[in-house]
Amino acid sequence: MEDTAIIHLFWSRNEDAIQETERAYGRKLFALANRIVQSHEDAQECVNDTYWKAWETIPPQRPEHFYAYLAKICRNFALGKLDWKNAARRKAEICSLTQEMEACIPDRRQADRMETQELQALLNRFLGEISQENRLIFLRRYWYMDTIGDIAARSGMTESMVKSRLHRTRCKLESYLTREGIAL
């Protein structure tokens, strides 16, 4: 079923919307959550919470990119579950990703002063300026939290090439944000 038809089911409050969403995106959402929480049960709970949140927010929302909308919700639930499970201790992979991005993302005080929408617009502009291949690699790593090996296999590159591209992209992002007046 097409995304627009599924969204129409949500708008008409038809419970089949959940089943159609599960059929279309259940595996992808589960894989995303599982990469973060690394637990079958917790990942399934995050996916179920995603369906519930979609049911609550559509309407009034009418997402233009349905999977991206669902993935954002699912990712947030999974990160919340990870925080809850590990309290002060984070998983090594999440820490590793955070450390990779620390140099090119503003510190929390700067982000608090800056409107979230402004930072989002800057990141979107930056991603629009880099090549599609580098954008996909960057998003697979830092949004979908794919491993370097998964990205390499998906893109037909070596792991070394993927690491190199990610490093160069992070450096470009740092320069871009600095040029835009964001203190790092």
Tell me what you see in this structure.
- There is one protein chain.
- This protein is an all-alpha fold.
- The protein is built from 10 helices and no strands.
- It has helices at residues 3-11, 16-37, 40-57, 66-86, 92-102, 108-113, 116-129, 132-142, 148-155, 159-179.
- Helix 1 packs across helix 2 (16-37), helix 2 (16-37) packs across helix 4 and helix 3 packs across helix 4 (66-86).
Task: Give the structure's gist in a few sentences.
With about 180 residues, this protein is mostly helical. Helices cover about 75% and strands about 0% of the residues.
Task: Give me the number of helical elements.
Answer: 10
What proportion of the residues is helical, as a percent range? over 70%
Terminus-to-terminus distance: 44 Å
Order of helices and strands: HHHHHHHHHH
Tell me the structural class.
mainly alpha
Shape: globular
Average pLDDT, all residues: 86
Rg of Cα set? 18 Å
Strand residues, percent = under 5%
Q: Number of DSSP strands?
A: 0
Largest sheet, strands/sense/barrel: none
